[in-house]
Write a structure and sequence with these properties.
six-stranded parallel β-sheet, alpha/beta, 16 helices, Rossmann fold
C-alpha cells in the first residue's frame, strides 16, 4: 500500500501531535515493511528540513508551499490535490485536523473538539478548524480519534456513522518505564532544590493554570515549607496566569525541555498535576504512570478513560474546584505504605503502546482503501 502522511508537526518544537506523527512514522515501516510510507509537509520554509526529522524507512516528498495559502484553497476548493506534493498514493493521512483534497482515499485524525466545545480556550489559528475540519471530514473515508470520548463527540457533532470513526489511542514510549530522577546538581541548577509537584503542557487557557496556581497558593499558605510547583512546557498563547502572592518564590518555570530531561523531571516529582479543562487524550498522566509517579488530574472524560479507573493511583477532582485540587495536592503520595503502587501504575501505562497505535491506524488505512 502506498501511504502518505502529513508530517508537518515534526518541524519545529515537538508538541504532543508531533510525537504522535513521529511514533507513527517509526512504527509503520517496521510493522508493515511491504508498504511504501511517504512523509510530506505543508510549509514554505521548513519543507527542506523534513528529511532530517523523518525516521529511517520513510520516503520524503515535499515541495515548499505556503501553508496558509494551501489551507485557504482547501477550505474553498478541491485544488491542489496532495499528490502534486507526494506523487501517487493509495491512502493519505491528514494527521493534524486537516485533510487536503486527494485522488487517494482519505484518513483524517481529529485530536479533539476544543475549537468547537471550548472556543474561549483556543487560538485564532485553531479557530479556523471550524471550517477546515468539516471539509476534511467530507473528504475522509475514515476518521481517527485518540479516545472513546472524542469518538462520541465527533459522531454526535458531525453526524458520522460509527463505522467511519476509528479509536486509535496514543502510546507511551518504552523509555518512560526506565525513567529515573535527574541528578541532584541538575535539579538544583533548574531551581528544584526541594520536593516538587509538576505540571507538563503548553501554557494556554485550556490547561487551567489559573485554578492550579490558586490551589497551590492555598497549599503554600497551609505549609510554608512544603513543595515547589514546577511548570514544564513551551509558551502558548492567552493571558499569563499570575502567581498569587502566597505562592511567590515557589513556582519554577522550566520552559520547554527535551525528552530526556522531561522524563527525569517527571520521575522525580512528588505528583504530576494535570488540571486541564478539556483534552482529547492527555499523554502526561500516562507517562507519569509509566515512571511510577502518582497523578492529580481534572475529572474529565479522557482522564476517566485512562488513569481514573484507579483511585488509589491517581486522584481526579472537579475542573473548577480550587479547594478539592488543593486538598489533593496535599495528600501523602509517597507510596511508602504500598510500594507496589508504583508497579501498578507502570502496568496501567504499559497497556498503551505506539505499536498498538500504528496497528489500529493501519487498520483504518485498510478500511479507507476498501
Amino acid at each position: 500500500m502506498r501511504i502518505g502522511l502529513d508530517a508537518t508537526p515534526l518541524l519545529g518544537r515537538r508538541t504532543g501531535i508531533g510525537r504522535y506523527v513521529q511514533q507513527l512514522l517509526i512504527a509503520l515501516p517496521g510493522l508493515f515493511p511491504d508498504d511504501d510510507v511517504t512523509a510530506t509537509a505543508f510549509t514554505l520554509r521548513g519543507a527542506g528540513n523534513l528529511g532530517d526529522a523523518v525516521p529511517p524507512g520513510v520516503s520524503v516528498r515535499a515541495r515548499p508551499a505556503p501553508a496558509r495559502a494551501l489551507r485557504a484553497a482547501w477550505q474553498r476548493t478541491e485544488w491542489p490535490p496532495v499528490e502534486l506534493l507526494t506523487g501517487r498514493l493509495d491512502v493519505f493521512h491528514g494527521t493534524n485536523f486537516v485533510l487536503p483534497p486527494a485522488r487517494a482515499r482519505g484518513v483524517l485524525t481529529v485530536h479533539d473538539l476544543a475549537y468547537l466545545l471550548h472556543r474561549d480556550t483556543v487560538s485564532a489559528d485553531s479557530a479556523r478548524l471550524r471550517e477546515l475540519v468539516p471539509r476534511g471530514l467530507a473528504r475522509a473515508e475514515v476518521v481517527c480519534v485518540p479516545s472513546a470520548s472524542v469518538a462520541a463527540e465527533v459522531q454526535e457533532t458531525y453526524r458520522l456513522a460509527a463505522d467511519r470513526v476509528a479509536v486509535t489511542p496514543l502510546g507511551v514510549d518504552a523509555a518512560w518505564a526506565g525513567a529515573t530522577e535527574l541528578p541532584r546538581d541538575r535539579l538544583v541548577a533548574l531551581g528544584l532544590d526541594r520536593p516538587y509537584l509538576l505540571f507538563v503542557g503548553t501554557l494556554e487557557p485550556r490547561k487551567n493554570l489559573g485554578v492550579l496556581l490558586r490551589a497551590f497558593a492555598a497549599v503554600c499558605a497551609a505549609d510554608p515549607d512544603g513543595p515547589l510547583l514546577a511548570l514544564a512546557g513551551p509558551a502558548g498563547w492567552g493571558e499569563a496566569a499570575d502567581v498569587p502572592a502566597a505562592a511567590s518564590g515557589r513556582v519554577v518555570r522550566l520552559g520547554y525541555l527535551d525528552e530526556s530531561d522531561l522524563r527525569g523531571i517527571v520521575a522525580g516529582a512528588r505528583a504530576l498535576v494535570f488540571p486541564s479543562v478539556y483534552e482529547g487524550f492527555g499523554l502526561p498522566p500516562l507517562e507519569a504512570f509509566a515512571a511510577g509517579v502518582p497523578v492529580v488530574a481534572s475529572d474529565i472524560p479522557t482522564t476517566r478513560e485512562t488513569v481514573g479507573a484507579h483511585p488509589d493511583l491517581a486522584r481526579l477532582v472537579p475542573v473548577t474546584d480550587v479547594e478539592a485540587l488543593a486538598a489533593a495536592l496535599t495528600e501523602d503520595w509517597s507510596d511508602a505504605g504500598e510500594p507496589d503502587r508504583r508497579e501498578r501504575r507502570r502496568a496501567v501505562a504499559a497497556q498503551y503502546t505506539w505499536t498498538a497505535t500504528a496497528e489500529l491506524t493501519r487498520q483504518a488505512y485498510e478500511r479507507a482503501a476498501a
